[in-house]
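Homework help board

Subject: predicted structure for assignment chain

Our instructor gave us this sequence and asked us to write out the predicted structure in token form, then describe one feature. I got the tokens but I'm not sure how to describe them. Can anyone check?
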Amino acid sequence: MESIRRTKIVDLFKDPQFGSVVDVKGWVRTIRGNKYVNFIHLNDGSTIHNLQIVADVQKFGDDFFKPVTTGACIHVTGTLVESQGKGQSAEIQADTIEVYGTADPETYPLQKKGHSLEFLREIAYLRPRTNTFGAIFRIRHHMSYAIHKYFNDKGFFYFHTPIVTASDAEGAGSMFQVTTLDFNNVPRAEGGQVDYTEDFFGRQTNLTVSGQLEGELGAMALGAIYTFGPTFRAENSNTPRHLAEFWMIEPEVAFYDIHDNMDLAEDFLKYLIRYALEHCKDDIAFLNEMFDKELIERLNFVIANDFVRLTYTEGVQILEKSGHKFEFPVYWGADLQSEHERYLVEKHFKRPVILTDYPKEIKSFYMKQNEDGKTVRGMDVLFPKIGEIIGGSEREADYDKLVNRTKELNMNTDPIWWYMETRKFGTAPHAGFGLGFERLILFITGMANIRDVIPFPRTPNNAEF
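My token output:
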């Protein structure tokens, strides 16, 4: 007899061919039954929905089902029929069941009960098998695809920037060092400092905190580029919003000013949320039901409303006049905290907000300086529940102004001489921004902790799996 090909469960539900013989493979979520029939709920990761397998006990024998427990992997062939039970449209009347791999009920950690998210982080190697994390990681995939599709359709070029770099784009200094030196026998120069000429690259190098500086070089040749890759921050931040390793999307566009940049950011975010609502319906509905009853409403709210645009100065005035008691003080020159950003979005405007024209002291050296000498053309996009989701700016295109700013900050520009040089050779207005991918996934899934939207989170004292 000719073997039939495996069908993914998601495809069975999409177009059920009732009466046909089908072949499915997956992991047992639950099994229950009586002396006549067993009902196995099977999931293969392709959808949030389990497929019910109906197995005649007499046909297979009582002992056959002993290894078919929660977590076991099985291969089933049988006839697809309309389901009599509630909650599913189709089920399989099993003809054959093959057990690929067992899961001892005494030791398999994912038994049929509620598990805390904290516990699931401890078993990150198994948590993708839960409904929650299956949904989150499918959404991650769809969002990754949507990002590439958006920029491709708009004529942007995907530009690969280095992960190992000698520059610190943010000037923050919180970088992971990359070295092949022997820590038990570190070469020293005459002054006693580490001799990096002996290292692999012949100089001190780090993991990148941002692809922006190299991305700007791409934009100044290709016109419009975007990067999408891992970035690393060695900040000792144990918060629900920080990771040491995360993914960033960074478009850079020649001939854009701050207004073009804001338009791009708003259009991009709305496109991604619309895409999620259209292509991740079942997963978002599950997360809305289980974790955040206002999730779908909030996603639709962002699409339906124009983002408010106002200056940092206007934002500070609103916060100062609000009478609200903030944990962190508000004054002109303060680096706004998440509580301030969320107040503007959730309480005052009740819509997403784009803040612009920040004090130059709290922003990076590369931001275009305004005529007032005090502010720069930076912009932050602020979202409900999240606070800042995008940070960007029009970039300083004037060589002398850029040099003066680096001197004001006492910056060592030797590692970024090439970046400064671009302002000498055919400089042009340009702008860009960075979107933290995990922040986006937090917003779209309604999850509360950033460690729950990346498969294997990297945080202080945690590099397991």
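Reply (TA_rk): Your tokens look well-formed. For the description, you could write something like this. The longest strand covers residues 21-33. That's the kind of observation they're looking for.
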